[in-house]
Write a structure and sequence with these properties.
This protein has a domain of 73 residues. Helix content is 46%, strand content 5%. It is built from four helices and two strands. The protein has a two-stranded antiparallel sheet. Helix 3 packs antiparallel against helix 4.
Length: 119
């Protein structure tokens, strides 16, 4: 059974897909997905383009990576609360830059359960 949050996200994704499909039907060249980052590209990125710059974890180079950083936020181990707070600020700024909507207000809401075992 899907939650209301999942249903809302699915509707939004369907709306985006229809918009892209319509644009392609009219001849626009819309890439199917963004290219991933190679290890070489990741190694060349400035540290501040990562959510966790000391660990070079969770790159924030495009909308797809921002969504992934939010989804995996609770899986990052070995960082302090201060580092998490700073990472959340970077993620929110990148989300705003790339037009990714976040429904979570605080990083602590993301920590319920997860790999780190923090509550």
């Amino acid at each position: 059974m899907a939650t209301q949050k999942q249903k809302t996200a699915a509707r939004k994704n369907i709306k985006r897909a229809r918009t892209v499909q319509s644009a392609r039907a009219r001849g626009a060249r819309v890439p199917k997905k963004s290219a991933g980052l190679s290890t070489r590209q990741q190694n060349r990125m400035r540290a501040q383009t990562f959510a966790f710059p000391k660990e070079r974890k969770e790159p924030l180079s495009d909308a797809r990576h921002v969504r992934n950083a939010i989804a995996r936020f609770d899986q990052v181990e070995g960082v302090s609360d201060a580092e998490r707070a700073a990472a959340w600020r970077r993620i929110k700024a990148a989300a705003k830059k790339f037009g990714v909507e976040t429904q979570v207000k605080s990083w602590r809401e993301l920590m319920k359960g997860g790999k780190t075992g923090r509550r």
